[in-house]
Specification:
Low-confidence stretches: none
Number of helices: 4
Radius of gyration: 15 Å
Order of helices and strands: EHEEEEHEHEEEHE
Shape: globular
Structural class: alpha/beta
Distance between the termini: 26 Å
Number of strands: 10
CATH superfamily: Cytidine Deaminase, domain 2
CATH class: Alpha Beta
Mean pLDDT: 90
Number of domains: 1
Largest sheet: 8 strands, mixed
CATH topology: Cytidine Deaminase, domain 2
Length: 174
């Protein structure tokens, strides 16, 4: 099995992008950040995103800002799911109320901890375009979250399927 740090390309079905945006908008309608996890498998130096997981999360909204937390039980359930299915946690995607950037809290509390893993921040609570070029994409390199350039994003991420596709809405919780 290829280590995440060795991945050179990630294939994502458009349906995954769409369902990710829909899930983030669900939280955004309440002016809260949301979290989605991208699970998949690796083959040589290629990652294939096959499933989204919207974990149970506690949204926080106060005068100090917004955020979310997941419990230790949720993390245990995630690890058990990964172990039982052979899937890998390849990326976490979460929303911000305004611009997309990796905050100090994002750095400190990331669920993705594998070297080479991805953390993606979607602006405007997910209400913008369902398009990676509008999202901030970071990769864990030598223990530091590094923002990928637009050129790097285009060379790593490949979208499968037509962007005009509108899948049926579903609920994506544990």
């Amino acid at each position: 099995m290829t280590q995440v740090e060795h991945l050179e390309k990630i294939w994502i079905p458009y349906d995954i992008l769409y369902r990710t945006s829909e899930s983030l908008r669900f939280y955004g309608k309440r002016k809260c950040e949301g979290l989605v996890l991208w699970l998949g498998f690796t083959d040589d130096k290629i990652g294939h995103i096959k499933k989204i997981l919207v974990p149970p999360q506690d949204s926080i909204r106060s005068e100090d800002g917004v955020g979310y937390f997941v419990t230790s039980e949720t993390l245990f359930s995630l690890n058990k799911l990964l172990s039982d299915t052979g899937l890998r946690l390849l990326a976490q995607v979460h929303s911000h109320p305004g611009r997309a950037y990796h905050s100090a809290a994002d750095d400190r509390y990331c669920i993705v901890t594998a070297e080479g893993g991805f953390s993606i921040v979607v602006p405007d609570f997910g209400f913008g375009p369902c398009d990676l070029s509008h999202w901030a994409i970071y990769r864990l390199i030598e223990g530091v979250w590094e923002k990928l350039s637009p050129r790097a994003v285009k060379s790593i991420f490949f979208i499968e399927g037509k962007p005009d596709y509108q899948p049926k809405r579903k609920k994506f919780l544990f």
